[in-house]
Design brief:
By secondary structure, the chain is α/β, with parallel strands linked by helices. Helices cover about 40% and strands about 25% of the residues. The protein starts with a strand and ends with a helix.
């Protein structure tokens, strides 16, 4: 692997029963690079990024993250220490305050003491502009606020890569921008990011590369300028026609 290559997928395949979710996926992500993955529903986008941190086990091929090949429980745990993930649903613990949601993994996984974990939690709550909500419970927050808490929780583990699986799809339209603004800030700070999203404005402004998937395959990889102005494939042109019409 080259020194700046952070994620590499080589001929990765994944089946769910007889359904071929991923077909010979080849993809590389450089350190600090921002990839936006888009495509129609069922195209394999979420499955691909879930394979990157071992939430789904690929059937064949090779996935390497920061020089670690995912091939055992031990290496999957090692990769998860380097990779943060934010989901469609916020996955916050409802019985814990915002602050304690952020402290828990730091204490259990990183073995931080309470004071250090709280300091880190407050730092990242400030970073996502929600420190004033630290003492509240998730049910007392809006969806946009809960998703920002989920991003802050991932950042507390000092990841080298952030994966986003349609992080705004469960939000009301007026809450989407507050989450995207946090993601744009992360991108500007140089975080390596792979983001599955239909937010094409975000893709245009942030992505270094657009990855278009359909039917379990990567159909096209292009710069945002090329992808939006002159996509190569008929499938990408159809997708853009449908999504930009809304």
């Amino acid at each position: 692997m080259t020194a700046n290559l952070q994620i590499n997928l080589d001929r990765v395949c994944k089946k769910f029963g007889s359904f071929q979710a991923l077909k010979n996926i080849d993809l590389s992500v450089g350190k600090g690079e921002k990839l936006v993955v888009c495509g129609p529903s069922g195209s394999g986008k979420s499955t691909m990024i879930r394979c990157i941190n071992g939430l789904e086990t690929h059937d064949s091929g090779r996935i390497t993250v920061d020089g670690i090949t995912l091939d055992s429980d031990r290496t999957i745990l090692a990769v998860r220490r380097k990779v943060g993930m934010v989901f469609q649903s916020f996955n916050l613990f409802p019985h814990l305050t915002v602050e304690k949601n952020l402290m828990l993994a730091q204490q259990l996984v990183r073995r931080k003491d309470k004071a250090a974990a709280r300091e880190t939690a407050m730092h990242y709550l400030e970073r996502v502009h929600i420190a004033d909500q630290a003492g509240k419970y998730p049910s007392q927050l809006s969806g946009g606020q809960q998703q920002r808490v989920a991003i802050a929780r991932a950042l507390c583990m000092n990841p080298e890569v952030m994966l986003f699986d349609e992080p705004t799809s469960a939000l009301d339209p007026e809450m989407i921008s507050e989450v995207l603004d946090v993601m744009i800030d992360l991108a500007r700070e140089g975080m390596t990011m792979v983001c599955v999203t239909h937010e094409m404005g975000f893709a245009r402004s942030v992505a270094d590369k657009i990855v278009f998937m359909d039917a379990g395959e990567i159909v096209e990889v292009a710069s945002p300028q090329t992808f939006f102005s002159n996509p190569e494939s008929a499938r990408a042109r159809k997708f853009l026609g449908q999504i930009l019409a809304h």
